Amino acid sequence: MSNTGAPVVLTMEGAVARILLNNPAKHNSLTAVGIDLFIDCLNQVEANHDIRVLIITGQGEKTFCAGASLEEMSSGDMTGEKFETLTDRVAAMPMPVICALNGSVYGGGSEVALCCDFRIGVYGMRLKVPAAEIGLCYPPNGIRRYVKRLGVTTAKRILVAAEVLDAEMLLRVGYLTHLVLQDELEVETMKLVETLLPLAPQTVAAMKQLCDQMADGNLDLAKVLAQTQRCHTSGDLKEGLLARRENREPNFSRR
Predict the structure, then answer these.
(1) pTM over 0.85
(2) Which of 136, 152, 133 lies closest to 144 in space, CA to CA?
(3) What DSSP designation does 68 have?
(4) Pairwise pLDDT comparison (79 vs 250), residue with the higher score
């Protein structure tokens, strides 16, 4: 566990890890130090093979994340490349990642959430990326991610026009996968966690990676077949079928 006074806090309990953005006074924006801490937390989660689900959320009820610190961008201590390192790292996590959006999301914070597999939003939240308003051109990987996951029209509304999208619109365009009341966020997040935990972790990781590769258009068929074979030879398929016949919960291997 990280220091609870830190701007990014990691807890790991059983098969669930949680990363908390812990700077509500600054709308959970990320400094260069905060990004380094965030990446270190991600590295610890990936190294722990007991972890099957990762939750990323923010402190408070106003803002999930306001992206990179504008003060550090002005001083030159923060760069787009550094933030891109973080978003690419979140997207590459092998286990399912749930973003519990405790409030509104701004700037690069919206991309952090977009890198997650599931995004649970709350009524009353909104999204705005003011990059065009301050003369910041998003890095190519970030633009590609918006276009790939939301389509070019919605990406232009967010990035080019700097539109404000409310919670209902975010659900409609596919940015949010779930939309709940603020006081239901933790309960609904844990319901999704409980849905994911019993699943075969190696198979889940493989299919998550394959979905992303297919969406990116960079599928390597030989690697796909090798991944599929690894899942089968792990014994999880045999265990899953046996558990189904015996009407019990399967005992899958670790991730």
Answers:
(1) yes
(2) 152
(3) B
(4) 250
